[in-house]
Amino acid sequence: MTQEQGTIIKVAGCLIVANGMKNAKMYEVVNVSEQRLVGEVIELNGDEASIQVYEETAGIGPGEPVFLTGQTLSVELGPGLLEGIYDGIQRPLALIEKESKSAFIARGISVPGIDREKKWDFKPVVSTGDEVVEGDILGEVQETTLINHKIMVPVGMGGKVIAIHSGSKTVEEVVAEIDGDDGHKHKITMLQKWPIRNPRKDAGKRVPATPMVTGTRILDSLFPLAKGGAGCIPGPFGAGKTVTQQTVAKYCDAQVIVYVGCGERGNEMTDVLMEFPELKDPNTGEPLMKRTVLIANTSNMPVAAREASVYTGITIAEYYRDMGYSVALMADSTSRWAEAMREMSGRLEEMPGEEGYPAYLGSRTAGFYERAGAVKCLGSDGREGSLTVIGAVSPPGGDLSEPVTQNTLRVTKVFWGLDATLARRRHFPAINWLSSYTLYDDNIAGYWTKEVAEDSMEVRNTTRALLQEESKLEEIVRLVGMDALSPKERLVLETAKSIREDFLFQNAFDEVDAYTSLKKQYWMLKCILAMYHAGLEVVENEEFDFDNLKKLPVLKKVVKVKDIGEGKWDEFEALEKEVQTSIRSLK
Amino acid sequence: MQKEYKSITSIAGPLLVVEGVEGVKYEELVEVQVPGEKETRFGKVLEAAEGRALVQLFDSPQGAKTEGSKARFLGETMKLGVSADMLGRVFDGSGKPIDGHPEIIPEKRLDISGAAINPYSRDYPNDFIQTGISTIDCLNTLVRGQKLPVFSGSGLPHNRIAAQIARQAKTTDGSDFAVVFAAMGVTFEEAEFFKSEFEKTGAIEKAVLFLNTADDPVVERIAIPRLALTTAEYLAYEKEMHVLVVLTDLTNYAEALREVSAARKEVPGRRGYPGYLYTDLATIYERAGRIKGKKGSITQIPILTMPEDDITHPIPDLTGYITEGQIVMSRELHRKNIYPPADVLPSLSRLKDKGIGEGKTRADHSGVMNQLYASYARGKDVRELAVILGEAALDETDRAYMKFAEAFEDKYIRQGEHEDRDIEKSLTIGWDLLTILPREELKRVKDEHIEKYLKTK
After folding, report:
1. pLDDT per position as a tens digit, A528-568
2. Nearest to A357 by CA among A408, A308, A312
3. Which residues contact A321 (CB under 8 A, 6 or more apart)?
4. Is residue A503 a contact partner of residue A528, using CB atoms and an 8 Å limit?
5. Angle between helices A361-369 and A403-411 (to 10 degrees)
6. pLDDT above 50: residue A1
7. Would you state the pLDDT for residue A312?
8. What share of chain A in percent tops pLDDT 70?
């Protein structure tokens, strides 16, 4: 079969221009030169096409061929994705290593995203004669110990099942045949493809109503993210974006995690690659890798593939969402993705918008985050899935007014603002409790009151108010000194300090401290706030010497409140009582 | 199949346009012969279009002319001949020896841009490197395979620190160690300082120097870190050495990049630097690392001067996003006559946790590190407060913190240029300083370590 081809007329970095391309489509994948480098058509002009190449282009010159493939940039979907480690265009890194025969990435390597040899045990859930619609589940495959992979009727197909083949199959073998409504007979395999730039179809979005539990106290208790929501973590370097992202990826209660390392450090990705298979999921006790797909496109890998990597990631995430799972996608960092867009835009000589970024930065960013959501999945069983997106943003110089951060803030509802000053004081997670916000408070209030405690919203609001007041009082202290404060104000400062040091401070590298359940979070706050509530009664007396309260031995126990184990609620309750009685005794 | 063209149509800065060319490849090397000159000049293809090539000259374009000059396309990308004999030698930005000795006989010729290391094939850096400087060893530990830049400012002694690190750095297991040093756009005096410093201490035997002074061609400045890293990769992954690469000064490198970008009339990003500055810096920094199954490693210490000491300037900013931490120099400490003026609070080593602790340094390392950090931060805050309110307004604890901060700067940060403190010593000094604070303030160190190491007065 001769492949249709064009000819290169210009090479400038990762952008090449070829003519003889009148049959090329926008976003079609092409192979460049005899080395068959992967590229994608991004602009058409007469029979000339601009192509962004996902690999290094040194040594390529005009006159060399460009082969059309007829396909838009797609990912392969099917069992075998989980535990996978891919580059930005879904090539498994392990296979790249094998093909390159070196630790360095060679060019022109073509390897399938999904293992073609491996056999999966396909268990049908429909039988011959059943009517099915798009998205209906045909059968299941136990992909890993954690995830039961659902094989669905491809989008845009429906009809009567005329054959179904159970048993051990590779992803390319036919598992079902459908007599379609369109009059054609379709053979369905477990392997399906989806173009990465198109969102996968769903049957309608829902308003997110369950919190995504991360085990990180400041996130869960003060600035919760809902399952199906979108959040962003902007922060200067060294403030802990990556650590926060990784901690959430490790401990959050989503069923499937897609982690996209987009233009970040090689050593950091290696850390993830080595650590995830070792770590146990706190919710199930299985290795974390069993529910994870990793996409690693480090900063020195070709820039165009970096642009594609977030789309590759989110398409895989949507695929698992469609099965009815709750999926979380972490993109670290979306600034690198935006920069890749800027670089391509510059080479295309497009009119730049703000700071050299292309004018379509805003719409692309919005398009990406809007792919998050709690949805009713396609299919007649009415199952629901969710896709939560958390994007890290690396604003230059930590300046949040720059275009990427601003465009991101417009579309995300949760803002976890990292603060370099906190990081320098070694207060981790260095999330600023004054600038961060969430818009999901009301959505998930119901869940908290029902699952955790009746008064949990009250506890949260008091906590936030105290922290807010503390910042005001600190200003005063800075100007006139501590002595000018009334006992009540000192009580606020003391409680807020305890909230900061004993509750918000959390060590992501400590095995026990890294994860705290919602209920424990609630009780920790209860114990700390007991000091405030009981204290209020005492400090009403203007003559009260606040140092007496500070000297109470019970406060030493409050400092260690995080050491009380999970599930020991009576111990927490006892501590709360003890705090109350000892403070009241000062009256 | 090498073709010669006499069709150079324009020269702008280091850029030439050659018309009517055929079969030119991107990044290909070009030889340019100017009539009446014996030496040939070199360049590379920046843009290859049909019948037209944009060539960037490595040398100065001075004296080049469109009429009569010949351009010859060599059909290969820029390569560097490498050999273990490079140790002990000094080269310029085109890879030619400048120490008066003959050229080396290469064992291999390698492409200088290198290829990206597959993240899957990397091995995680976790072996402690002792530099003999307390602020680095104890507080911002350097590990093998890390890239840890020094953020400095004009007039600060970063060169002396770089030389001190190169001189003292050693691993605890005594394996084969080499230093590759690249200077970009430094002054003659700075270049001489390094050369003599290396010769004086005998470190030159285990070092390869690449020097490009401020008056050398700008384009060579862009090539030189890549020459250094190609040499380092060869020594590390083929000769099984642990290589420390010191690059100075990355600010000059970025300036050179901007100069060339402007000559190419590219759309500028922040402050006129090209939009691909991040990617370009990444292709340098990311060449640090370790590879599974290979004994050697590459550790990088790039040095850059922050214009106006501004850490948010694009060069330090983008660097910080790629490297695994940073050591920041402080003008304030320098004015107080403290050497090395390492500003502990904004400094950070991201990989420290993997290189310290039991079996690597000492079990109490992590605790001591966090305690010193937190206490110094508090101490500095108190000091500021005292400026406003007066010392009398401070309570006893705060006064202790202030005293601690002073002592910390004087005894811990300050050390001699030839003082090689081992990690035990650094930790001991740390514990000594902690005695200044009330014991109940020591929340970050474990009680068992307090029992063992804290000597109460």
Report:
1. 999 999 999 998 887 888 888 888 999 888 988 988 999 99
2. A408
3. A200, A202, A327, A375, A377, A385, A386, A387
4. yes
5. 40
6. no
7. 96
8. 100
B336 pLDDT above the threshold of 90: yes
* Structure token pair of residue B358: 């039991």
CA B232, B235, B236, B238 dihedral sign is: positive
Q: What is the pLDDT of residues A261-294, one digit of tens each?
A: 998 888 888 888 888 888 888 778 888 899 999 9
- Segment B45-102, tens digit of pLDDT: 988 888 899 998 877 788 888 888 899 998 888 889 999 999 999 999 888 899 899 9
Tell me if chain A has a CB within 8 Å of the CB of B48.
yes
Instruction: Flag whether pLDDT at A110 surpasses 80.
Output: yes
d(CA B137, CA A11): 47
Asked if A396 and B270 come within 8 Å (Cβ–Cβ), the reply is: yes
Q: Could you tell me the CA-to-CA distances from A572 to A86, A517, A551, A560 in Å, in that order?
A: 45, 14, 21, 11
Query: Residue B447: how many CB atoms within 10 A of its CB?
Result: 8
Lookup result for tokens 């060019």: A107
Degrees, nearest 5: CA angle A329-A26-A317: 15
Chain A contact probe: residue of B121, B281, B366 with most A CBs at under 10 A:
B121
**Which position has the higher pLDDT, B202 or A315?**
A315
| Helices assigned H by DSSP within B77-157 | 134
B50, A63: Cβ pair inside 8 Å?
yes
Which amino acid is present at A284? T
Residues 468-527 of A with CB under 8 A from B: 478-479, 481, 483, 509
CA–CA separation, A331 vs A215, rounded Å? 19
* Long-range contact pairs involving A449-453 (C-beta distance under 8 Å, separation at least 24): A451/A518, A452/A518, A452/A519, A452/A522, A453/A519, A453/A522
| A192: number of Cβ within 10 Å | 19
Contact B83, B252 (CB under 8 A): no
Contact residues, A window 251-270, toward B, CB-based 8 Å cutoff? 261, 263, 265-270
Amino acid B1: pLDDT: 54
- What is the C-alpha separation between B150 and B289, in angstroms, rounded? 18
Shortest distance between the Cα of A584 and any Cα of chain B, in A, equals 25
Task: Point out which residues pair with B128 in neighbouring strands.
Answer: B143
Question: CA–CA separation, A256 vs A327, rounded Å?
Answer: 5
- The amino acid at residue A171 is V
The residue in chain B having the minimum alpha-carbon distance to the alpha carbon of residue A304 is: B279
Percent of chain A as helix, strand, coil, to the nearest 5: 35, 25, 40
